[in-house]
Write a structure and sequence with these properties.
Elements: H1 3-30, H2 49-82, H3 86-96, H4 100-117, H5 120-133, H6 140-171, H7 176-198, E1 206-208, H8 213-225, E2 232-235, E3 246-249, E4 256-260, H9 261-266, H10 269-284, H11 287-316, H12 327-364, H13 367-381, H14 389-395, H15 401-413
Parallel strand pairs: 2-4
Antiparallel strand pairs: 1-2, 3-4
Helix pairs in contact: 1-11, 1-12, 2-5, 2-12, 3-4, 4-6, 6-7, 7-11, 8-10, 10-12, 10-13, 11-12, 12-15, 13-15
Length: 414
């Protein structure tokens, strides 16, 4: 084999190894220091066997259906790579009247719709199970409306992304990954900034937390934490679910803390304060910008792998890179690389969440109430408090509830 042939053969595995190393290095660089290691506590100390059987039976079925839905999308993409959809491509090109970028946008939107609809039967089964257990409150008609909205938004974004990436590929066939990585980071910033005020209101109603004891307590808590809170909003989550949650979203003037109305209705004042204190930690530690910074560090290496993978898979299918026919290969490459890098980024996410838990317990001085709150969240959300380790490693953005309880145990002992 010639030196050039050897170099070409090694390019992809070397690029994959480099991307993973960069991702791990970015995690080490950005992860919080001195996060407390949780105590090893038995789950049976906090949950009865009946409770564990109930949540695990539900969670195991939901996981299987979720993995099955992803597998359906993966199989569909693989089939489209092996056998490019020539008829769809020709229809898109005809509709675009010879404008390849417009054709790419139409084909990208069609691909997004197909990927959204293919696993819909499995998602419907998952939803039926959630209805049966009492977790979901939304009717099927409203659910179908939500699916239609999400599909339309996804098609628009996929079409715009396909047009942008193919334009970059046609303009600079060997260096488009640089522009692609910059575009992905820019879109992440814009999406994080605008989603709370543009997309979220399409699905839910958001109101200011009303005046009263709860609002006074939470404002005082934010002042104690040294956090300037722009907005504390309540979302009408109860129109879809009985689950309880809270989250931080947005950047700059769109930054806000959002509480589920189910949280305020079903949890004690002390537990609500703990959950809000956890979210205040994310604001204080600038965890949303931290995630965007991780993406900025990793995107170039990841997009270089996407370029090499999509070129290889397009060539096997007889499609020219940068053509509309190469879109399935590009989409599959993005999906594979995104999944691999997300597994790495989840390490950072779990450490960030551990630090937020520690901050919340120390701010409120309520480790025992934190344990009670975690137990209540598990029951309300019908979630597995201690899922298998490999699943946590692959998919876990938060530590399991048993680990979070273990941290509270350590702080309580102190």
């Amino acid at each position: 084999m010639t030196r050039r042939g050897l170099r070409a053969r090694l390019a992809l595995p070397v690029a994959i190894a480099a991307a993973l190393l960069v991702a791990e290095a970015a995690v080490l660089l950005l992860q919080p220091d001195d996060v407390i290691e949780p105590a090893d506590v038995p789950e049976s100390r906090f949950f009865s066997l009946e409770e564990l059987d109930r949540v695990r039976d539900f969670a195991a079925g939901q996981r299987a259906l979720g993995i099955g839905a992803v597998a359906v999308q993966g199989v569909l993409l693989t089939l489209l790579v092996v056998r490019p959809p020539g008829r769809t491509v020709r229809l898109a090109e005809r509709a675009a009247r010879g404008r390849p970028i417009v054709a790419a946008a139409l084909a990208g939107a069609a691909l997004a719709v197909a990927l959204r609809l293919a696993p819909l039967p499995l998602r419907a089964i998952s939803r039926e199970r959630a209805l049966d257990i009492g977790l979901v409150t939304q009717g099927w008609g409203d659910w179908a409306e939500d699916v239609a909205k999400a599909t339309g938004i996804g098609a628009f974004l996929a079409g715009a992304g396909a047009a942008l990436l193919l334009a970059l590929m046609r303009r600079s066939p060997r260096r488009w990954w640089l522009g692609g990585s910059a575009a992905i980071v820019a879109l992440a910033i814009v999406f994080t900034w605008l989603a709370p005020i543009v997309l979220a209101p399409l699905f839910n109603k958001f109101d200011e937390l009303p005046e009263g004891r709860t609002r006074v307590d939470l404002i005082e808590l934010a002042e104690k934490a040294g956090v300037d809170v722009d907005d504390v909003l309540v979302v009408d989550a109860s129109r879809r679910t009985r689950a309880a949650n809270a989250y931080v979203t947005g950047l700059g003037h769109t930054k806000r803390i959002v509480l589920y109305d189910t949280l305020l209705e079903r949890f004690t004042a002390a537990q609500v304060k703990l959950i809000v204190a956890h979210e205040l930690a994310h604001v204080k530690n600038r965890d949303v910008p931290r995630g965007i910074l991780w993406l900025a560090l990793v995107a170039p290496a990841g997009m270089y792998v996407v370029m090499l993978l999509s070129e290889r898979w397009s060539a096997r299918a007889g499609a020219t890179p940068g053509s509309v026919s190469s879109l399935p290969a590009l989409a599959l490459s993005l999906a594979v690389v995104s999944f691999a890098l997300t597994v790495v980024s989840n390490q950072l996410s779990r450490q960030v969440e551990r630090r937020a838990d520690e901050f919340a317990i120390e701010l409120t001085g309520e480790p025992r109430e934190f344990i009670s709150m975690q137990r209540r969240l598990v029951i309300a959300n019908t979630s597995d408090p201690n899922p298998p380790g490999p699943l946590v490693w692959l998919f876990g953005t938060h530590p399991p509830a048993v680990e979070r309880i273990g941290m509270a145990v350590v702080l309580e002992r102190r």
